[in-house]
Design a protein that fits this description.
single chain; alpha/beta; Calcium-transporting ATPase, cytoplasmic domain N; 3 domains; seven-stranded mixed beta sheet; six-stranded antiparallel beta sheet; 20% strand
């Protein structure tokens, strides 16, 4: 019974997790999830759908909206970033002719650069404006109040227009945040977006701490800062840029639809992009720990009582435990431990169910 107490629980928990869409690569990661103090979410593609759309275009002097969009789409044509795809999709929907671009290059958290019709075209956020020593367009302030993602298009060092994009928040994100709070877990969001955009999302979801304007290479350092505060961190991410932070966190959780690098750096992999799946992992971790304790108490308590009886401790008063009864009790303890571990199979790890159960306690 003592030998089976832990391995049976671990085996069933791992199998149950796989059936519920959670792949446990590191069993210690599952064990650690019950003790985490904070869940750190990457914003794009995790709390939001990761499918932004262009909501507004403000051209600069001498340019019209279609020209700005076409040039931006040309510069972004070789990029895999969700914002780039949104710009290209907007140009396609408008039926614009996108010119051919050469000499494409990309700089994380800054933007992209390409040559279009002999002119250098750059598209990016606030760090790009710092590099070209330019100021944002006046309309950006109003867009920022609405929580929009703001990009500027620059031709030969001169701002020619601005684009506002919005990334829809997943409807299940609010439920995930509320349920984590119910469990006593702090929720932190990290993003490379401007502070105003990040704060708008954080306020809408009720997130405890927002880390905005974080360059990809600095994400791991932010995780380390939280750990130095004495916080045990579980990091949820899906991109190449998240891999170092996933490795740095006490528990790295990768979205299954994310990149191979992110998946390789994580101890837990979620089959879906539903942020409520994190609750399933926490619930499984806590349930597994309870079963381990129950099995150890049963197996240990049984041995503390049955072994002395089998050794004849009560023989002086005339009680001798028959060997046949001892054999039955030995088998019974093993059966009880095995059956108790099997009760883990009743745990429903559907993200929606996990969130509902936590919120209705």
């Amino acid at each position: 019974a003592l030998g089976l107490a832990i391995p049976l629980v671990v085996s069933i928990a791992t199998e149950r997790a796989a059936r519920g869409g959670v792949l446990i690569k590191d069993r210690l990661a599952l064990e650690s999830m019950r003790t985490i103090d904070a869940v750190l979410f990457d914003k794009t593609g995790t709390l939001t759908r990761g499918e932004p759309v262009v909501t507004a275009i403000e051209p600069g002097a001498g340019f019209d909206a279609d020209t700005v969009l076409a040039l931006a789409a040309a510069a972004e044509a070789s990029s895999e970033h969700p914002l780039a795809k949104a710009i290209i999709r907007a140009a396609t929907e408008r039926g614009l002719t996108v010119p051919f671009a050469t000499d494409f290059s990309s700089s994380p958290a800054v933007g992209v650069t390409a040559t279009v019709d002999g002119h250098q075209i750059r598209v990016g956020g606030p760090y790009l404006l710092e590099e070209v020593d330019a100021t944002e367009m006046a309309v950006a302030g109003r867009w920022r109040e609405d929580g929009a993602i703001i990009l500027h298009a620059v031709r030969d060092g001169v701002v020619i227009g601005a684009l506002a994009l919005a990334d829809e928040i997943r409807p299940e994100s609010r439920e995930a945040v509320d349920a984590l709070h119910k469990l006593g877990v702090q929720v932190v969001m990290i993003t490379g977006d401007a502070e105003a955009v990040a704060e708008a999302v954080g306020k809408e979801l009720g997130i405890d701490r927002v880390l905005a304007g974080v360059r990809p290479e600095d994400k791991a350092a932010k995780v380390a800062e939280l750990q130095r505060e004495g916080i045990k961190v579980a990091m949820v991410g899906d991109g190449v840029n998240d891999a170092p932070a996933l490795a740095q966190a006490d528990v790295g959780i990768a979205i299954g639809a994310g990149t191979d690098v992110a998946i390789g750096s994580a101890g837990v992999i979620l089959a879906s992009s539903d942020p409520r799946s994190v609750l399933s992992v926490i619930e499984l971790s806590r349930a597994s720990y309870r079963k381990m304790k129950q099995n150890l108490w049963w197996a240990g308590g049984y041995n503390l009582i049955a072994v002395p009886l089998a050794a004849g401790v009560l023989a002086p008063i005339g009680f001798i435990l028959p060997m046949s009864v001892g054999a039955i009790l030995m088998s019974l303890s093993t059966i009880v431990v095995a059956l108790n571990a099997q009760l883990l199979r009743r745990l429903d790890l559907n993200p929606e169910t996990s969130a509902r159960q936590v919120l209705t306690r």
